[in-house]
Write a structure and sequence with these properties.
heterodimer; A: mainly alpha; about 75% helix; elongated; B: alpha/beta; Rossmann fold; Alpha-Beta Plaits; 2 domains; four-stranded antiparallel sheet; about 35% helix
């Protein structure tokens, strides 16, 4: 365990240095949600039934969760790059624990994503979004976001390690922006046709979004929703912990596969 | 005195679906020697190195690396080896120094050891530049430095000089010779016959996933003999010279009308250069050059594996 901590920390340090040397992807993933916030909040928001200010408050938690879901993309990019540029194989030949490399990547990503939330939160606050659930609620929302980010990143690491090529991982990674579109992150699910609403509400993004909205006091839990949305905090915890419990061991196994 | 083998493999097999990459590869590399795995693309060299460096599990066969069982105890093998090659690379998005310090930390070595190797490989000046901005030669040196941090017993080099300019190639060769002089066992794969010739104590010709031939560079060459060649003056026909070479060597001469040369391979130790020149002169043939040389490894390879295309 001590060895894993030491090696994991060294490798997390490597991933953090990479972000410092090649910040383009990180900066993009930090600014995209702000662009979305302005675009959805002011341009598309005008066409919705909800008043603009109310919609923007509704939107900020959705974008925070969508950004957390972006761990799927960054995790995949990074793991695919390492795999197809020979870096992963170099690590594999070292006397280093099999869990250390993926764990180091996941830990570094979590740290970067926590900092990456700050600009979106600041712009959101400037646009009138308020945390009305108190410090405890805010802390809870932050914790759920990080937990969900971690689940998304492990999924990305697994897919990146298993990818055919960097290009394939890039295309698949870019397609993951669809994930929050099919949820309640940008628009309420109540207006969707029955089957689509069911699909959207079983999307883990919806549970986490609903939980963040509830904890921040932005929007109540909707009536008649599927179980994970109706019980958003429990739903988010189960989704995130469940995904991590399955995907992290799979990713470690995939990394160690010979 | 018994020989201790740093690498000892028996019947290694690997299959990728329909492709049989290795069909029973046996290797025996004595400690402190350089073994060159020589062969064309697709012969199975890289698969062999991937198996021996614990990246792939063999479908069949066994191997001991530095005394540890490759299949049962890959972790122990990893403590004794290092790999530099086309597929196992340093991180281009880190600086040279960051790369080496990362490896040093992972190997529980002091940071000073990383700086020592930067110095040794002439990378101190470029230490704070991103590795992806390095030239091919610098990058290979960084790669090699990373491999040597932990003072491995067995170093695997997969095509260590592919794509390098002649000067960088010489630098890598010098480094390999130096290591071998210090007792490190080196297993290298190469498509360059010259490289195997210059570095290896033993050469294994790999073809179709097997060791087609093995021996010292000199022994492999002796097996094929020498190559006699004359360059004709004027514009006359090549055939009379071909007849003389045929008689002297007992093997079919090769005629090159463009270069005006006739060459043939011989294993007869009685055929010397003066005798070759005298016989040609006695036949009234005018030549501007004559030679009797050891074959290149290219020729060895073509003869021993019966391949038409060249290896390089």
């Amino acid at each position: 365990m001590n060895a894993l901590a030491l090696e994991g920390a060294a490798l997390a340090g490597r991933n953090l240095r990479r972000v410092r040397h090649a910040p383009a992807l990180t900066v993009m993933t930090m600014t995209m949600p702000i662009v979305f916030l302005l675009f959805f909040g002011y341009v598309l928001g005008g066409a919705l039934a909800m008043p603009g200010a109310e919609y923007r408050s509704f939107l900020v938690p959705g974008l925070l969760v969508a950004t957390a879901a972006g761990g799927l993309m960054t995790g995949m990019f990074q793991a695919a790059q390492d795999t197809h540029r020979g870096v992963t194989d170099r690590f594999r030949t070292l006397p280093v624990g099999r869990a250390a490399v993926p764990l180091g990547q996941a830990a570094a990503d979590l740290l970067v994503s926590a900092v990456g939330m700050v600009p979106l939160v600041l712009v959101g606050l400037a646009m009138g979004w308020r945390i009305e659930g108190g410090a405890l609620g805010a802390l809870g929302a932050f914790g759920l976001l990080l937990l969900f980010r971690s689940a998304a990143t492990w999924a990305g690491i697994l897919l990146g390690l298993a990818s055919e090529s960097e290009e394939a991982a890039g295309q698949l990674g870019s397609a993951t922006f669809m994930l929050p579109l099919l949820s309640n992150a940008y628009i309420p699910t109540e207006g969707m046709p029955g089957w689509l609403r069911t699909v959207a509400e079983w999307n883990p993004v919806s549970a986490v979004t609903t939980a963040v909205r509830a904890l921040c006091g932005n929007a109540p839990v909707p009536d008649g929703a599927a179980w994970p949305v109706a019980h958003p905090v429990a739903g988010s915890l189960l989704w995130s912990l469940g995904l991590i419990a399955v995907l992290a061991p799979l990713a470690v196994r995939r990394y160690g596969r010979r | 005195m018994t020989t201790t083998y740093a690498v000892l493999s028996e019947g290694l097999e690997k299959r990728y679906g329909e492709v049989h990459a290795l069909r029973g590869l046996d290797l025996a590399v004595p400690e402190g020697t350089v073994c060159g795995l020589l062969g064309p693309n697709g012969a199975g060299k890289t698969t062999a190195v991937r198996i021996l460096t614990t990246l792939l599990a063999p479908d069949a066969g066994s191997a001991r690396i530095a005394g540890h069982d490759l299949v049962r105890d890959p972790a122990a093998v990893r403590r004794r080896i290092a790999v530099t090659g086309q597929y196992a690379s340093v991180d281009g998005d880190l600086t040279g120094a960051e790369n080496l310090r990362l490896f040093a930390r992972l190997l529980r070595l002091p940071r000073a050891r990383a700086d020592e190797l930067l110095e040794e490989f002439g990378l101190t000046g470029a230490a704070d530049r991103l590795a992806r901005t390095y030239s091919g030669g610098m990058r290979r040196r960084l790669d090699l430095a990373a491999s040597l941090l932990g003072r491995p017993s067995v170093l695997f080099l997969d095509e260590p000089t592919t794509g390098l300019d002649p000067r960088s190639r010489e630098a890598v060769w010098d480094a390999v010779r130096g290591l071998s002089g210090q007792g490190t066992t080196v297993v290298l794969t190469t498509q360059y016959l010259e490289e195997a010739d210059r570095l290896a104590d033993d050469i294994v010709l790999v073809e179709d996933g097997r060791a087609a031939h093995r021996g010292t560079p000199a022994a492999l060459k002796a097996l094929v003999g020498h190559r006699a060649e004359v360059v004709l003056a004027g514009t006359g026909p090549l055939e009379p010279a071909a007849a003389v070479l045929d008689r002297l060597t007992g093997s079919a001469p090769v005629l090159d009308a463009e270069r005006r040369t006739v060459g043939a391979v011989t294993t007869d130790p009685a055929l010397t250069l003066p005798r070759l020149v005298r016989e040609i002169d006695a036949a009234g043939i005018h030549i501007v050059d004559a030679s009797l040389r050891p074959p290149t490894l290219d020729e060895v390879f073509l003869r021993l594996t019966g391949r038409k295309e060249t290896a390089a």
